[in-house]
Design brief:
The complex is a heterodimer of chains A (604) and B (445).
Chain A (H helix, E strand, L loop, with lengths): L10 E4 L3 H13 L7 E5 L7 E6 L2 E8 L2 H7 L5 E4 L6 H11 L4 E4 L6 H13 L3 E3 L5 E4 L3 E2 L7 H6 L8 E5 L2 H14 L3 E6 L10 H10 L5 E7 L4 H11 L6 E6 L26 H10 L11 H15 L27 E2 L6 E2 L2 E2 L1 H4 L7 H10 L5 H13 L8 H11 L4 H9 L9 H14 L4 H11 L18 H13 L4 H16 L7 H15 L4 H9 L2 H24 L22
Parallel strand pairs in A: 1-2, 1-5, 2-4, 5-6, 6-7, 10-11, 10-12, 12-13
Antiparallel strand pairs in A: 3-4, 8-9, 8-11, 14-15, 15-16
Helix pairs in contact in A: 3-4, 6-10, 7-8, 12-13, 13-18, 13-22, 14-15, 14-22, 15-22, 16-20, 17-19, 18-20, 19-20
Chain B lengths: L2 E4 L1 H10 L1 H4 L10 E3 L2 H8 L4 H4 L2 E5 L24 H11 L3 E4 L2 E3 L2 E3 L3 E4 L3 E5 L8 E9 L2 E7 L10 H4 E6 L5 H10 L10 H17 L2 E12 L2 E4 L2 E6 L7 H4 L15 H12 L3 E6 L6 E6 L1 H15 L6 E6 L4 H15 L11 E6 L7 H21 L3 E5 L5 H15 L2 E5 L7 H8 L1
Parallel strand pairs in B: 16-18, 18-19, 19-20
Antiparallel strand pairs in B: 1-14, 2-8, 3-8, 4-7, 5-6, 9-10, 9-12, 10-11, 12-13, 12-14, 15-17
Helix pairs in contact in B: 3-5, 7-8, 12-13, 13-14
Classes of the chains: A alpha/beta (604), B alpha+beta (445).
Chain lengths: 604, 445
């Protein structure tokens, strides 16, 4: 890994830290990234499925997950973890992600993780070849490619400090605030940075100066490096060794802050937890002198740093090592943006012609397009182009459920309402309102229960026992008059179609074994048309590659009912128009068909 | 700071509390009390029979060593091992009655360097334990670089430091070492001078000790010496530091542990304690150290790194005699927290005028913030100005501000307006001015 991040790098952000994520997306938009740098957010306690963020003037939705594992499974390309958990949980979050694997780097922001845990976490990451940035850090940035959370501050400051495009300096600091300050100084005195890392202020951090500087040594975009160290610790000596041994050949400018510490005894803690000198070697002065002796460019004080940066930069520029950087095109983030109240992901009427999931209406409407109502449903309901066998099946289902005579509750309601002089739409909804668990609901119920039994590997006998325990008759089983010997031809038709065109029908196969058992008890306990539809819908979705979770969501959100609602509306409207045509009068139910049993109300 | 020293008494109490888990094959009587004066000791004797029944040893328990060299271990009245309860109580009263000089370094028996002077306030009292020199051993553990290291020696007591290289066996373990690996390595490295009969026991005790060090989140743990008489252990002297960041996981394990100020260190002022308390309650960071409260330059700097740069620069340009404090606020403190922090500083800096008649200086500095809202924190500072404006004028306070970051334009404009309205001297600069340039400007006035 020469470069910590690229323009394609995407992160999983642990904790829904909206300000930080918005700053990342503002950065993405400014530098004209194609994809948002945050692919997923882990928010263990949120019930939402996504969070909206601005991407320039528009809004995008970043999916939310309850666990890192789910986020990583959904966004496997996201190989950076931005761990914004508190010091209490940051360790567990990191260790879990290391276990899941597939991450190249992890940034941990919490300050004050117990030292023993931090050491264990850092060591495990090292063994797995994962770069840890932090803990207790504001992060890292590869200008023009990817920026971690809040590093660089506001977008205005980022542009002012030339952090929106790659310069030629590799910057490593402990402090996050001074990282920003130095970016600004480097922008003023040189041409900005190619990559920068704030390694973090805790005593035990994952990647240290030398780890990052050895990577920068290999990164051709980095022409020289700046190291801002602190009093305490011996990490700077590893850099000195690398310079001496030739492992680092690029020019290095360095300064250790905390020269004041020498005036006070060790009781005074200057700066970060890691900044406390144990012995002379760890003092800022000693380290500055040692670095100077090793040939590193060390200024006289922090205030002289700008001068030395300018000098090194101009020398490299004069030698031709650093070329002039053309300023890249940049988007300007609008300062005033309004969040949208509604979201639409299925159709778009803003262009020349309205589209269904990206397809102009004219491309699916007329017969010459070869598209039917099944295709339209697949586009508008599922945002996918289903294959012909599937759209044919959808159409078959809707034709099959279009009507079942005037006596069923929905049709009856529609007819009564029409006879009361109400309009088509009013009459239709009274019919539709009866659709639910008892009317039409067997499709849903069959899909749900048969799938449950199949998923859990229940034998037909166990399934029957399970349903009996629940006190529910098995939905989709049983017919008033039909039996195996006298089959329901609608069911036969659906099954034949499936046998011929479905790649496989595992749930139907299972349901047939259940039917074999129920019909052995009673002739008419066959798999009926509702059951067949519900079960074959599950088989269709399975064959189309949906996950079991997605199919369960289809069932629980009422998608199966929707097929019945659309199909049966055809029949209801038929009955309503029939009433209108016949000009039938107001309906009054005959009194002799009502059992009157009215007692005088008791006084309480 | 993450690593904090605790009293010997607390170190022993923590080990005693978990004794059976780490040292199931050994016994430890845990006969020890900590008192502040003689009457507390007499009071303790009412419930702890051993204080009456046994002869005693008493010594201060205030985070410093070399107590024997400083003649601060009471183990004899007329001959070793004859200290009665009454004698211990009177000795404690005598030692705690006035200032006490303590030397931390010695050349042979002769103290070198300047002594620390402070009052002795805490004493630990234990039974006198007769034992042979050969029964004394040494063990300690700490973290060196990335590893944990256990140090073991067949000789305990004060001589160990002088003979460290010859007498002490070191074994280092990576953080990921398993219990089996540790046990095997410790068993293989028992110092050869450990008595043959004690070798196996010594190894088992050290294994338990190292496990306790790791699991109980000690940063440093030393027993020098412990006495091993078969399976009976006495902990004669202990030094320990805890990793206090692990405190949230160790509430039960550590119990009610205290982090005292070391002997000779000035007790924390109420202001510093108040800031520490506020710091403990917030996710942001508020830190304050008083260096020289009568000095004329005060800093209120945002950021752990920037605050150090300011301190360095003041030391370089003005010397440390003029620097009153070191501190920092960072991590996005609320307006209220910033106001509290600013008022604490303003209160301290306006108590007395500069003895040389110069005006006082307040440096409100900071780098370019990543996420701290500058306007929000500056609102807190402005509210503090409003409450302290008159006092600030009395000490002729000049304010120099330099800051960048989210909302900095508004923050700078607000603070300038407020100071002007209150009649305070102020100079305000943004990110276009070098971070510490205001120090130079302030000193040139």
């Amino acid at each position: 890994m020469e470069q910590l991040y690229t323009k394609d790098t995407q992160a999983i952000f642990w904790n829904n830290n909206k300000t930080a994520i918005q700053r990342m997306l503002d950065y993405d938009y400014t530098i004209q990234r194609k994809t948002p740098s945050v692919a997923a957010i882990v928010a263990p306690t949120s019930g939402n499925k996504f969070e909206k963020f601005f991407f320039g003037p528009d809004e995008v939705m970043i999916p939310l997950f309850k666990t890192t594992a789910a986020a990583k499974a959904a966004q496997p390309q996201a190989d950076v973890l931005l761990n914004f958990a508190s010091f209490r949980t940051a360790y567990d979050v990191t260790m879990e992600a290391l276990e899941i694997g597939g991450f190249s780097s992890m940034m941990i922001t919490a300050e004050g993780i117990p030292e023993r845990l931090a050491r264990g976490m850092n060591q495990t990451a090292r063994e797995k070849g994962v770069t840890i940035i932090g803990p207790a850090t504001v992060g890292a940035i590869t200008p023009g490619a990817f920026k971690v959370a809040n590093i660089g501050g506001t977008i205005t400051n980022i542009v002012n400090s030339k952090l929106h495009r790659a310069g030629s300096c590799g910057l490593v600091t402990r402090s996050g605030g001074l990282f920003n300050e130095l970016s600004n100084i480097i922008a003023i005195n040189a041409d900005g940075i190619a990559e920068g890392v704030a390694i973090g202020g805790d005593r035990f951090v994952g990647s240290v100066f030398i780890d990052n500087m050895l990577r920068m040594e290999k990164n051709p975009a980095v022409k020289y490096m700046i190291l801002l160290g602190e009093v305490g610790g011996t990490e700077e000596y590893k850099v000195i060794e690398a310079v001496k041994s030739g492992a680092i050949t690029k020019p290095v400018i360095a300064w250790c802050i905390g020269t004041i510490a020498k005036y006070y005894d060790s009781g005074v803690q200057f700066g970060h937890a890691g900044a406390s000198a144990n012995g002379e070697m760890e003092t800022a002065e000693y380290k500055n002198n040692a670095m100077r002796e090793a040939g590193i460019h060390v200024p006289g004080s922090f205030n002289d740093l700008p001068e030395i940066i300018a000098a090194v930069y101009h020398e490299l520029h004069a030698e031709g090592v650093i070329k002039n950087i053309p300023e890249p095109a940049m988007n300007i983030c609008p300062t005033v943006r309004r969040s949208k109240e509604f979201i639409c992901t299925i159709s778009d009427d803003r262009g020349e012609e309205c589209t269904y999931a990206g397809f102009p209406i004219s491309s699916v409407a007329t017969p010459d397009t070869g598209k039917g109502i099944g295709d339209v449903i697949s586009l508008l309901w599922f945002k996918k182009q289903y294959p012909k066998w599937a759209t044919d099946f959808i159409e078959t289902v809707m034709k099959t459920v279009a009507d079942h005579g005037p006596a069923v509750s929905g049709a009856h309601n529609a007819k009564v309402t029409a006879r009361a002089g109400k309009s088509v739409v009013e009459s239709l909804v009274t019919g539709l309102l009866t659709i639910g668990p008892r009317f039409g609901g067997a499709i849903d119920g069959a899909a749900e229960h048969f799938k449950y039994a199949d998923d859990n590997g229940l034998t037909p006998k166990e399934f029957l026992g399970h349903m009996k325990k629940q006190g529910i008759p098995i939905p989709g089983i049983g017919h008033r008059i039909k039996s195996l010997k006298n089959p329901d031809l609608r069911v036969t038709g659906l099954m034949n179609f499936a046998a011929e065109h479905f790649p496989a029908t595992p749930l139907l196969d299972y349901a047939r074994t259940v039917e074999a058992l129920t019909t052995s008890k009673k002739e008419n306990l066959i798999l009926n048309v509702d059951g067949t539809i519900g079960i074959l819908m599950v088989d269709m979705w399975r064959a189309l590659g949906y996950t079991e979770t997605e199919i369960n969501e289809f069932i629980s959100s009422g998608t199966l009912n929707a097929f019945f609602i659309v199909g049966r509306s055809i029949g209801f409207i038929g009955h309503i128009l029939d009433e209108k045509r016949l000009a039938m009068p107001m309906y009054r139910h005959p009194m002799d068909d009502i059992l009157y049993d009215v007692q005088e109300a008791e006084k309480l | 700071m993450a690593q904090k020293a605790i009293r010997e008494y607390d170190a022993k109490s923590i080990l005693a509390k978990h004794w059976d888990k780490y040292f199931p094959d050994f016994t430890y009587a845990y006969e020890t009390v900590m008192v502040q004066n003689g009457s507390e000791l007499l009071e303790a004797a009412k419930t702890k029979a051993w204080l009456n029944e046994k002869t005693l040893v008493a010594k201060p328990d205030m985070l410093f060593g070399k107590r024997g060299m400083n003649d601060l271990v009471l183990f004899k009245d007329t001959k070793p091992g004859d200290v009665s309860l009454a004698k211990a109580a009177s000795w404690i009263d005598e030692k705690s009655s006035g200032d006490q000089k303590v030397y931390f370094s010695f050349d042979g028996d002769k103290p070198t360097g300047e002594p620390s002077v402070d009052k002795l306030t805490n004493f630990i009292v234990e039974p006198f334990t007769p034992h042979k020199q050969s029964e004394e051993y040494y063990v300690s553990a700490t973290c060196v670089g990335d590893n944990d290291v256990i140090y073991m020696s067949a000789e305990g007591g004060i001589a160990i430091e002088e003979n460290w290289d010859e007498k002490v066996i070191e074994v280092a373990f990576p953080i990921t070492a398993t219990e089996d690996e540790i046990a095997t390595a410790i068993r293989a490295n028992v110092p050869k001078d450990v008595a043959e009969k004690d070798k196996a026991n010594f190894a088992e005790f050290c294994i338990g000790f190292f496990k306790a060090y790791r699991e109980l989140n000690f940063a440093y743990l030393e027993i020098n010496p412990f006495v091993m008489q078969g399976n009976k252990i006495e902990l004669l002297d202990m030094v320990a530091k805890l990793d206090d960041t692990a405190g949230f996981m160790m509430v039960e394990e550590w119990g009610d542990v205290e982090y005292p100020t070391a002997f000779g260190m000035e007790a924390k002022s109420p202001e510093v304690e108040a800031i520490e308390e506020a710091d403990a309650k917030t996710g942001a960071s508020l830190k304050l150290t008083l260096l020289k409260p009568e000095a004329r330059i005060w800093t209120m700097v945002a950021g752990g790194g920037a605050s150090v740069v300011y301190a360095d620069t003041i030391a370089d340009m003005a010397g440390i005699d003029d620097l009153a404090n070191y501190g920092e606020y960072s991590g996005g403190p609320t307006t209220g927290e910033t106001k509290f922090y600013a008022e604490t500083l303003l209160d301290l800096m306006t108590r007395e005028k500069d003895p040389q008649g110069r005006g006082k200086v307040m440096i409100i500095g900071g780098a370019i913030a990543n996420f701290t809202d500058v306007a929000k924190t500056f609102t807190g500072i402005i509210q503090a100005f409003e409450n302290y404006a008159d006092k600030m004028k009395e000490v002729d306070l000049k304010i120099y501000v330099r800051r960048g970051g989210p909302n900095y334009e508004k923050g700078l404009k607000d603070i300038k307006e407020a100071a002007d309205r209150l009649g305070l001297y102020i100079e305000v600069y943004g990110p276009e001015t070098h971070v510490t340039d205001i120090v130079r400007m302030a000193l040139e006035k």
